[in-house]
Amino acid sequence: MRTLDVGCGRKKEQGAVGLDRSRLSDADVLAEIESFPWPFADDSFDRVRCSHVIEHVHDVIGFMREIHRVCRKGARVEIYTPYFTSWQSWADPTHVHHFTLRSFDYFIENTPFGFRYTEPLFEIHERRVTFGSSIFDKIAKLLYRFSPTRYERRFSYMFPGRNLIVVMETLK
Predict the structure, then answer these.
(1) Low-confidence ranges of the chain (pLDDT < 50)
(2) CA distance 102 to 112
(3) What is the β-pairing status of strands 163-170 and 122-130?
(4) Which residues of 97-132 are buried (b: 16+ CB within 10 A; e: fewer)?
(5) pTM, to two decimals
(6) Spacing of C-alpha 57 from chain mean position
(7) For residue range 36-80, what is the model confidence (pLDDT) as tens digits?
(8) Taking a C-beta distance cutoff of 8 angstroms, is the pair 116, 106 a contact?
(9) Which of 65, 67, 62, 61 is nearest to 7 (CA)?
(10) According to the model, what pLDDT value does residue 114 have?
C-alpha cells in the first residue's frame, strides 16, 4: 500500500512518501502543494494523509482535485484539521479556511447542498470531532454524541471541539 503524506513537515508518517515545500521538513519530494499538478503520476497512491495542512491551502477545490488525481480508485484519504470552533483554528494567522462536519460534502455524490464545485470525487466513510478532557469538553462530547448536527448548529460555539477528522474513499 503506497501512502502520500501531504504537507508532512517534520512528522512524516513512517513508510509514506512525504510531500512538502520546506527544506526543513522530512519530505521525500519538495514541491509547492498549491502548485498543481504535483510531481506524481495519476493513480499513484492507495492512501493520502493530510494532517493539519488543508487549513493553510487557499484553493481547497484544486487541492481536493489534486488528491483525487494522484489516488487510485478506492484509495483512502484522511484529513485532520482544527475544527472551526477550536481556538487553534483561529490562532494561527496562516490558516485561511475553517472546516465543519459538512465542509467536505461538496465533493460527494449525494451532497445535501444540491450542488457541488466538482464532479463527485469521494465517498465519506467517517467524520468526527475530537474533544479535550476538561469538564466543558465532557459536556461537548455528550452533546455531540446525542446529535452531531445539533451540536454543530447550536452548541459548538459554547463548547468548542478540538479537531475534525474526515476519512474518504476516492471514486473513479
Answers:
(1) none
(2) 9
(3) antiparallel
(4) ebbbbebbbbbbeeeeeeeeeeeebbebeebebebe
(5) 0.94
(6) 11
(7) 999 999 999 999 999 999 999 999 999 999 999 999 999 999 999
(8) yes
(9) 67
(10) 85
Cα distances (angstroms) measured from residue 107 to each of 57, 111, 113, 130, 169: 16, 7, 11, 22, 11
User: How far is residue 101's CA from residue 164's CA, in Å, rounded to a whole number?
Assistant: 7
Nearest to 54 by CA among 91, 104, 12: 104
Write out the DSSP string of 137-149: HHHHHHHHHH-HH
The span from the CA of 105 to the CA of 162, in Å, is 20
Q: Write down all domains in the chain, each with its CATH number in brackets.
A: 3-131+162-170 (3.40.50.150)
d(CA 121, CA 95): 24
Whole-number pLDDT of residue 91: 96
How far, in Å, CA of 97 to CA of 145, rounded?
Answer: 25
